[in-house]
Design goal:
With 158 residues, the protein is mainly β. 0% of the residues lie in helices and 35% in strands.
Length: 158
């Protein structure tokens, strides 16, 4: 497939967030095979190992949709995982693939977020990045009570 038309971002089998404070979210510790630094405890994770209609777990993630540029002139149309017959967020085999696809004169993709929030912690993800001109994958964090980018701040992880 033409690299200019498609980029894959694989969040492979592990997205961990740990925290040094107690957190009300109960985690099945036996499910986690990942590294947790001494003094921290696992408070949230997604292994992308469940198949809820082939999409990310809607109890953990939500999609942000639209094509209004998002403050930095992004050209793609963000969809809620699926647009007609095109799936831009398939989950299978312990991976989430984020797909950007040319559809007519538009490029469709996804923008995912979580309502989970922490003040401090250790964050870890395994990612496979796309190659090619014009790709700009991102894994970043915004404040919980976000109002305006970039004034409210942002932590770019990659």
């Amino acid at each position: 497939m033409n690299r200019k038309l498609m980029c894959n971002l694989l969040l492979t089998s592990l997205l961990l967030i740990t925290n040094c404070n107690n957190h009300p979210a109960a985690i099945d510790e036996q499910k986690n095979d990942g590294f947790v630094p001494e003094g921290y405890e696992l408070v949230w994770h997604d292994e992308f190992d469940t198949d809820k209609n082939g999409l990310p777990d809607s109890d953990l993630w939500y999609f942000e949709t639209g094509d209004h540029g998002w403050g930095n002139n992004e050209l793609q149309l963000y969809v809620a995982g699926v647009d007609g017959a095109d799936t831009c967020a398939p989950v299978s085999g312990g991976t989430l693939k984020i797909i950007a696809k040319k559809k007519g004169d538009r490029v469709i993709s996804i923008r995912m977020n979580s309502d989970a929030s922490w003040t401090y912690g250790y964050f870890e993800a395994r990612l496979k990045l796309p190659q090619g001109r014009g790709t700009w994958p991102a894994f970043w964090m915004l404040p919980q009570h976000f109002r305006s980018w970039p004034s409210d701040g942002e932590i770019d992880i990659m």
